[in-house]
Structure formats: C-alpha cells, structure tokens
Amino acid sequence: MTTSYRKEAAAKLKAEKKVLREQEAAANKAKLEAEGKAHQENMDRLAKKLARLSGDAVVEEKPVKKKAVKKPVKKAVKKSVAKKKSKAKK
What we know:
Elements lengths: L3 H51 L36
C-alpha cells in the first residue's frame, strides 16, 4: 500500500501539471489568434494587389491622423541669484 505522503505528492504534481496545461493552452490560443490575424492581413494585401493588377478600381482606406495640438511654450524666467558675502579680511 502507498503511504499518505506519496498520495499527497502525486496529487500536488497532478495539480501543478493541470495549471501548466491551462497556461500552455492559453498561450497557444493567443499565438493562433495572432497568426490568424497576420494571415488575414496578408490575404487582404494580396487581394488588393491582385485587384490592382487586373485593373479593378481599389478603394484604399487611409488611416485618419489626429491633428497635433501645440501647447504654448512657457518662457524661461531668470531667477535672481543672491551674491555670496565675501569674508572680511583681518
């Protein structure tokens, strides 16, 4: 028969492996989604290129840029510096 510490160690190992499998599955899912998105972007680019080559009119959407708002520049203010008192010579 097995002792209780072996049963506890086996249960702990099982729990650790379960957590690792879940983390791995989440990482794999994120990787697949990123690859799918990249593939779709490539296919869109390819479709536009083929449309241009075949002579079809392609409407390209240009990203809208936000206008930069210039903030007023504060002028540097000179601070008056007090002169150091010189030591009196004896």
